[in-house]
Design brief:
Structural class: mainly alpha
Helix content: over 70%
Largest sheet: none
Radius of gyration: 64 Å
Number of helices: 5
Number of strands: 0
Strand content: under 5%
Distance between the termini: 108 Å
């Protein structure tokens, strides 16, 4: 492939791409309808011209046929009057008019066929234009809907990266963080209260137990003289018990 062919193909491809990109469906459809209507006007003019020519040929044919018949009657009249030369001349004129009429008849038949073809083409073109107008309206509506949808998609896409949407996203994240801190503070406050109440409850148990032990010690001190008087053999054991109780009391006082 030569360099010129390659350059030519590149230029044509770029031109085609530029034309395709510049084509607006609505404008192209409108122009297509205008072109078809111009063709319709030209075809109507052609049909009108053909019909006028057909009528003119029809008149010429009728006139030639009439002249041929007139020369036929004149030839008969001349022959009846005994003038053969005049009859021969009339027959010659009649022949010329008959030949002209035959030629005009052939031309008229040909023009009739042409007019019929043009009329059929005219009707077909009118039908196509009517169909094209209906299709044009539908295609324009579809093109407008497609443009609106494309614009909507672009708008939505731009909103996704715009500063307004970014602000909404930042504020949403900030609110979530605030909610998380609030929930954490509530949990910490709840756990602190629980620990305080637990300490109070555990301290109450210890105090109750301490009071019970003190009461037991007081009761044991009241019974100690009676026990020492009843039996001297148990004195060493009571002394050891007293020592143990005193040591335990000292430990409890340190708590």
């Amino acid at each position: 492939m030569g360099l010129f062919d390659r350059v030519s193909r590149v230029v044509r491809s770029n031109l085609n791409a530029a034309v395709s990109a510049a084509e607006d469906p609505e404008k192209v459809l409108e122009q297509a309808i205008i072109d078809m209507q111009e063709d319709l006007v030209q075809l109507r003019q052609a049909v009108a011209t053909a019909i006028a020519s057909q009528k003119r040929v029809q008149q010429q044919y009728t006139q030639a046929q009439t002249e041929a018949e007139n020369w036929q009657r004149r030839a008969q009249l001349a022959l009846q009057k005994g003038d053969e030369n005049l009859a021969r001349e009339a027959l010659s004129r009649k022949k010329t008019q008959s030949e002209t009429a035959a030629a005009l008849k052939a031309q008229h038949d040909q023009q009739s066929a042409t007019v019929d073809t043009l009329k059929r083409n005219l009707i077909a073109l009118e039908g196509k234009i009517s169909e094209a107008k209906t299709k044009k309206n539908m295609l324009k509506a579809r093109a407008q809907a497609a443009k609106a949808n494309e614009q909507l998609q672009k708008t939505v896409g731009n909103l996704g990266t715009s500063s307004a949407m970014s602000a909404f996203e930042r504020m949403e994240e900030k609110v979530m963080q605030m909610e998380a801190r609030s929930q954490a503070s509530a949990e910490l406050a709840g756990s602190d209260l629980e620990s305080q109440f637990a300490a109070l409850e555990s301290g109450g148990d210890v105090d109750a137990e301490l009071e019970a032990m003190k009461a037991a010690l007081v009761g044991g001190s009241a019974q100690q003289p009676q026990l020492s008087q009843s039996s001297e053999t148990t004195a060493p054991q009571d002394a050891s018990v007293d020592d143990e109780l005193e040591a335990l009391k000292a430990q409890l006082d340190q708590l």
